[in-house]
Design goal:
Keywords: ATP-binding, Kinase, Nucleotide-binding, Phosphoprotein, Transferase, Two-component regulatory system. Residues 134-351 form the Histidine kinase domain. This is histidine kinase. It catalyses: ATP + protein L-histidine = ADP + protein N-phospho-L-histidine. This protein has three domains: 3-109, Beta-Lactamase (2-Layer Sandwich), CATH 3.30.450; 118-187; 194-357, 2-Layer Sandwich (Heat Shock Protein 90), CATH 3.30.565.10. 43% of the residues lie in helices and 24% in strands. The protein has eleven helices and 15 strands. The longest helix has 39 residues, at 115-153. The N and C termini lie far apart (65 Å). The structure holds adenosine-5'-triphosphate and magnesium ion. Magnesium ion is lined by residues 243, 246-247, 317.
Length: 364
């Protein structure tokens, strides 16, 4: 029995026992973490009051209970209390020896880009980008020559042929734009670390988005006013938020859509590396849009360079985001279902001394 108890407590995934009347009769510690509530406060409560599942489960659940068969549900949004829903897999099975009781295991499925990937993204990006940078440099000069020649030609030709020279000029511009993006990636300097008010960064990004690429969007602010200062490079953070807002705006219906900028504090969020080192990343920033979601085909690779779901996309936006966040020892992840795509960034807070210095400086 004791070993049963310790197995139950050590299970690293949220697990629940549900009785005949759909009430929670036991929850393990990962489950408490998932619900953000203590065992005491949830025992005896109806499970579907505590856990919101975005799928019509009841019938299947009843069937599993009656027939004593397990039930697996992949890729459902599971929410609890005031936390935003996570995409999860549910595994439900009858509890042997307890007629009518079920055990339910919830496995949150974070998409891509978490830190373990972050490092590989960085090195893959670096070699691909290094090559591309060299090419960019070599291609830009002859390209300028081609464009110039086409423009000269266009001065004395028939209107039909004009179409052709216009095409040469337009396509060359497109290549130049791509090359400039590649160069921007390569030119990224190491972050200039200082305490940063994330809400200022979000505001700047929001205003600039609404004036330009995001003019058709509604951008809602949902800020935790007590959020402490982050630690990093404000210009690079701005670039990150702009890239994410741009993607959300491009994914939305041309008639418009809604983006929510959310910040909150999660004091227990900790980054652990495989070498055992780690640090706290308590500042959470979410950029949530209600667009169609990440295309199925590229879902797992969106943070890699040159991966794009768009006809004219270069696929560098998220690679740059991922590089900046990993240069800041932060963490980025994405979850996406149609109608709800969340990019979540977790950052360090500014060291105490640093925020005191700036507080003093600004008081002077
Ligand atoms: N919020 C989102 N909703 C839907 N799809 C998205 C979203 N964000 C990213 N994507 C998908 O991920 C792909 C990669 O994004 P990324 O920003 O890296 O490149 P891009 O936008 O195609 O090109 P670039 O940013 O270099 O102009 C996009 O092409 C798009 O298909
Ligand atoms: Mg982009």
């Amino acid at each position: 029995m004791n070993s049963d108890k310790s197995i139950w407590a050590s299970l690293p995934v949220p697990a629940f026992i549900i009785d005949v009347e759909d009430r929670i009769t036991d929850v393990n510690s990962a489950g408490e973490g998932f619900l953000n509530a203590s065992q005491k406060s949830v025992l005896g409560h109806p499970v579907w009051d505590q856990i919101a599942v975005d799928a019509p489960l009841e019938e299947a659940f009843e069937r599993a209970r009656k027939q004593g068969t397990p039930l697996f549900v992949n890729d459902v949004d599971v929410g609890s209390g005031n936390r935003s829903p996570l995409q999860c897999a549910l595994q439900i099975a009858p509890l042997i020896g307890h007629q009518g009781s079920m055990i339910m295991i919830i496995t949150p499925r974070e998409l891509a880009g978490r830190m373990t990937r972050g490092n590989t993204v960085k090195s893959a990006a670096q070699s691909a980008i290094g090559m591309a940078e060299m090419l960019a440099h070599e291609i830009k000069n002859p390209l300028a020559g081609i464009t110039g020649a086409a423009q000269l030609l266009s001065m004395n030709i028939s209107p039909q042929d004009l179409e052709l020279t216009d095409l040469i000029v337009a396509e060359s511009r497109r290549i130049v734009k791509l090359l400039e993006q590649v160069e921007q990636f390569g030119n990224l300097s190491p972050p200039d670390f200082k305490p940063v008010n994330i809400h200022d960064v979000l505001d700047r990004a929001r205003r600039s988005a609404l004036l330009g690429f995001g003019a058709h969007m509604r951008i809602i602010e949902d800020y935790d006013p007590s959020l402490p200062l982050a630690y990093g490079d404000p210009d690079q953070f701005l670039q990150v938020v702009l890239n994410l807002l741009k993607n959300a705006s491009e994914a939305a219906d041309p008639k418009g859509g809604t983006i929510r900028l959310r910040t909150y504090y999660e004091h227990s969020f900790r980054l652990r590396r495989s070498d055992g080192s780690g640090h706290m990343l308590p500042l959470q920033i979410e950029i949530i849009d209600d667009g169609p979601g990440l295309p199925e085909k590229i879902r797992g690779d969106i943070f890699d360079p040159f991966v794009s779901g768009k006809e004219n996309g270069t696929g560098l936006g998220l690679a740059l985001v991922s590089k900046i966040i990993s240069d800041h020892d932060g963490w980025i992840s994405a979850e996406s279902v149609p109608g709800r795509t969340v990019f979540r960034i977790s950052l360090r807070r500014a060291p105490k001394e640093a925020s005191e210095i700036t507080a003093q400086e600004s008081a002077e």
